[in-house]
Amino acid sequence: MSGAACFLAGDIGATKTVLALVTAAGGARRPVLTRTFLSADYPSLEVIIGEFLAGSSATVERATFGVAGPVIDQRVQITNRLWGVDGRSVGAHLGGVPVHLLNDLEALGHSVLQLQEQDLVMLNAGLRDPHGTIGIVAPGTGMGEGFLVWDGKGHRPCVSEGGHCDFAPNNDVELALLGYLMARFGHVSVERVCSGLGLPNIYAFLRDTSRESAPEWLEKELDTAADATPVIVGAALDDARACSIAKRTLGIFVDVLAAEAGSFAVRLLATGGMYLGGGIPPRILGMMRDPRFMSVFLAKGRLRPVLTGVPVFVINNRDAGLLGASQHVLTGHSSK
Questions:
Q1: 74 near 85, Cβ under 8 Å?
Q2: How far is residue 218's CA from residue 121's CA, in Å, rounded to a whole number?
Q3: Are 35 and 19 in contact (CB under 8 A)?
Q4: 5-110+320-335 architecture in CATH?
Q5: Residue 207: which pLDDT band, with cuts at 50, 70 and 90?
Q6: d(C-alpha 283, C-alpha 230), whole Å
Q7: Mean pLDDT throughout 102-106?
């Protein structure tokens, strides 16, 4: 790779940052180098890039980064992370090359039409409108939502911060959950419930309102864990331990995800399909495939027949966001 002209792509999140060097020859799916960094271990993206490129003789011609947060004037404060990203500063750090920042869901949108059969798990076949709007709901550390619209030539990814809109309960337990979280946070967004940040909130609600008892072993694990979410998910999926509170926590999460995905599909009239991305859905495929998920997704009254025709998929490719950023930088959009 000595002296080779490369493009730099990145998927920048609150939990992890993934960088890749890609070339036109290899394409978006075959980077020449990738590396994952824990975001909390670094003070800035520039420091991460410096470490990533250290010892490399590659010439970076331009860069695209998908970043978890609203991008305004090529600046973004990463949601749920203290440091932000300034595209101009990163460009200067790279020697003055063009740099483009995308919202992480916009980057994921660029990947959707590049995804192959092995990257997807179908939950509902539906009947895809090739020119229809496509929706994306992606719970990871936070809750991301985005969409693609047909512009006459192709599907154009669009940004959204829908995950910060109001959480809407659909049954008595979720209504009580809303009241519990309002007392703690005031405004309760979908992200407060349906995300890696939200799962511990559901767990605390079930425990604190005595709807479920928390086993001592699980409480001990949570006390020492840097991140409660994988502990709760692990306990919920561990049939040997039969942990009722963890299973119910995850069950409420999945119901809320299904309802929110269905609502987003209604708002968009997403006849091009709904895609469930982020880090959590691929980890709980058994629950996503359960008929209950689509039952809750479709429970939209008079709009049920419309939603029945919407194809629904889980994106089962952990590098989909990076794939989207790579596709964007390779097509040269970042130089505009």
A1: no
A2: 31
A3: yes
A4: 2-Layer Sandwich (3.30)
A5: very high
A6: 10
A7: 91
Residue-by-residue DSSP string for 223-259: HH-S-HHHHHHHHHH-TTT--HHHHHHHHHHHHHHHH
96: tokens are 């003055």
Residues 219-231 have pLDDT tens digits of 999 999 989 999 9
**Domain chopping of the chain, boundaries:** 5-110+320-335, 116-316
**Calpha distance 255→275 (Å, rounded):** 16
Rg (CA), the chain: 20
Return the C-alpha torsion angle 16, 245, 124, 275, nearest 10: -20
Residues 6 or more apart whose CB falls under 8 angstroms from that of 241 comprise 235
| CATH class label, 116-316 | alpha beta
Q: Write down the pLDDT at residue 169.
A: 97
What is the pTM (predicted TM-score) of this model? 0.91
Q: Which residue has the tokens 């991140």?
A: 227
* Residue at token pair 């629950």: 287
Give pairs for 85-92: CB < 8 Å, separation 24+: 85/12, 85/44, 85/45, 89/46, 90/45, 90/46, 90/49, 90/63, 90/65, 91/63
CA 189 to each of CA 117, 142, 159, 161, 168: distance values in angstroms, whole numbers, following the listed order: 33, 11, 18, 11, 9
In the numeric block, which tokens belong to residue 331? 């097509």
Model confidence pLDDT, tens digit, residues 282-311: 999 999 999 999 999 999 999 999 999 999
For residues 4, 89, 103 and 317, what is the CA-based torsion angle, rounded to 10 degrees?
40
Q: What are phi and psi of 114, to 5 degrees?
A: -95, -10
**Cα distance between residue 274 and residue 108, in whole Å:** 13
pLDDT at 245 over 60: yes
Question: Length of the chain, please?
Answer: 336
The three-state secondary structure class of 148 is strand
Quick: pLDDT tens for 55-103.
788 889 999 999 988 888 888 877 666 688 999 999 999 999 999 999 9
